[in-house]
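Troubleshooting log. The previous structure file for this entry was overwritten by mistake, so regenerating from the original sequence record. Sequence copied from the archived sheet and checked twice against the printout by T.R.
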Amino acid sequence: MKKHLALSVICLLAIKLASAQIIPSFEFGLKGGMNLSKFSHTATFATGNRAGYLGGVWARVGGLGFNFQPELYITGKNVTINNNNGTVNKASFTSLDVPLLLGSKIGAFGVGGRFYTGPLFSLALYKDQNLGAALGNVARLNYKDQSMAWTFGAGLDIKKISVDLRYEYGLSKQPYNNGQDETRVNIFNLTLGYRLFSL
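Regenerated output below.
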């Protein structure tokens, strides 16, 4: 009897895991969190990590064991720059970030782990390009004066709550110091998300 019960439980778990990965699904939610930004090191200056913020929305479409997760959020990035001449400057960037992530999820009964990777387009927001202009550039696929990164990450879902830790490796250089210098920005993000609804 105990063997039959254990076998039944294992079969139910296997069916649940398989259906969770095969049946197409859609989720949408909010996310917010903090980041640690760091410039790539050069011979002329060194940098230190400083905390920033991010907040926005995410969506996830899944099926056949994989999922596609586009996101849209505002990010504040802060870096301390120590120049060789002894001066210390603090650089701040605000951007509209658009990660396009491909990943997989394992788990059942509302608890699961996720692994993902993909490109991230970072559209600078400043006095000459506000949020509306940046969204227009996304729609027109106009990425002039913008930057790209590649994202690697993992997440944990518990019912409607999700926690994500990811690393963004800068692929293109971002200007600073009134456009006189440029460098790559690498970022660690820790975010908390909430699923508003799923289909």
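The beta strands are 25-39, 45-63, 66-83, 88-108, 111-124, 147-158, 161-170, 174-176, 181-183, 185-198. Archived copy saved in two places this time.
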